[in-house]
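TL;DR need structure tokens for one chain.
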Amino acid sequence: MKKIWKSHLGILFLWLLLSTCGKEEALPIGIDIEFSVFDNRFLNIERAQLYLFKNEDDFKNNRNPVDSAYTNKYGKAVIRQLNAQIKEYYVSATFGDANNFSGKIKTGNLNLQPDFNTVNIQLLESRVSNFLAGRFEKRWKQLYQEINGSRYEICEYQKIFSFRRDGTIDIYYPAGRCSPTGSEIFCCNNIWTPDGANFVMGPPSNPKEIKNLTILTINETTLKYYYKPVNSDFPVTILEEYQAVK
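>> reply
TL;DR here they are.
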């Protein structure tokens, strides 16, 4: 009887050992990422703040980060043991007014390997881009157009402009009397690019209509600029004002 009991104990111990090993092997292996962060002169940035997000929606709304880190004096930061089920993360990297929102916002496909996955991120500083397009996209409603001091508040000058970080603008007729259907509908596209403390904007199909805009006011809620058309037969100054749309 004792021999049989010992035999059963041995089988039970072996089964538990194999079960434990199987569970250990089934655990997901974590992914490590080493980030290198630098500025427009390719100089390392110390104390840049990094946040990782598992999808575009969380990145755009700056919510539910899965991990974060600060870069060291060499501009590097390592985030370890990330979920191996996620093959690509969205990255928010900021340092003062500089960020990566107009550049690389995804890690690219990650690999399970002994060494680090290396991701290089360049931060560009543009106060204009931060206000106009936010992290990913921001909407502004035009309030009026003023030509040589005369103000016009007609529908043509009260559209909604959605500025995106990729340099495009989607333009809409707002819901209400200015829309042919009564609801918000798409109108057309423009393109834009920051130009120092100002920016350039116009239709992509007609380079002659690209306007160099001089900003008078820009903050979280208000955008006001003026420009002088170069193809006008007489001196004209056009001023336009926008309000941020939530």
